[in-house]
Amino acid sequence: QKLSEYKACTDSDKRRELRLEILEIYTEFAIPSLSLAIGTIITFPGAFAFFFIALQASGRGLADIQALVASVPFAADALSHIDPSLGSAAIAAVAVELVSPALILLAVAIKGSVEAGFRE
């Protein structure tokens, strides 16, 4: 509503006042939301990359799960056709889901720093 009012206004003093109000609304709502989004974008892919690289470097992952379910014929057969990199990616995705509550807290912690950077 303020934006349409700003666009329709021709009085320069009123436009300046409306522009400051719009900027205040933006500062109150958009910056915190954007900061949390950036924190989430940093933490979740970062955690996935960490788990995936750790699985690839250690040689653990899909082979361990295949050994665990070797006695179950259908599961063993299904897992034998999966590429090890794809298996590591799936395990990394599950690991990210398991630690997601901690990642959300980390994203909220990062949000403060990102928000301070925007406000400068």
Share of β-strand residues:
under 5%
Helix/strand-derived category reads mainly alpha
In terms of quaternary structure, what is this? single chain
Largest sheet: none
Roughly what percent helix? over 70%
Low-pLDDT residue intervals, each spanning 5 or more residues: none
Total beta strand runs: 0
Order of helices and strands: HHHHHH
In round numbers, the mean pLDDT is: 88
Number of helices: 6
Terminal Cα span: 27 Å
Rg, alpha carbons = 24 Å
How would you sum up the global shape?
elongated
Summarize it.
With 120 residues, the chain is mainly alpha-helical. It contains six helices and no strands. The relative contact order is 0.14.
Fold and architecture overview:
The protein is an all-alpha fold and 120 residues long. It is built from six helices and no strands. α2 crosses α5 and α3 runs antiparallel to α4. The longest helix is centred in the N-terminal third of the chain and has 47 residues. The protein is elongated, with a radius of gyration of 24 Å. It starts with a helix and ends with a helix.
SSE arrangement:
Blueprint: H1 2-8, H2 12-58, H3 62-68, H4 73-80, H5 84-98, H6 100-119
Helix pairs in contact: 1-2, 2-5, 2-6, 3-4
Q: Top keywords for this entry?
A:
single chain, 0% strand, mainly alpha, 120 residues
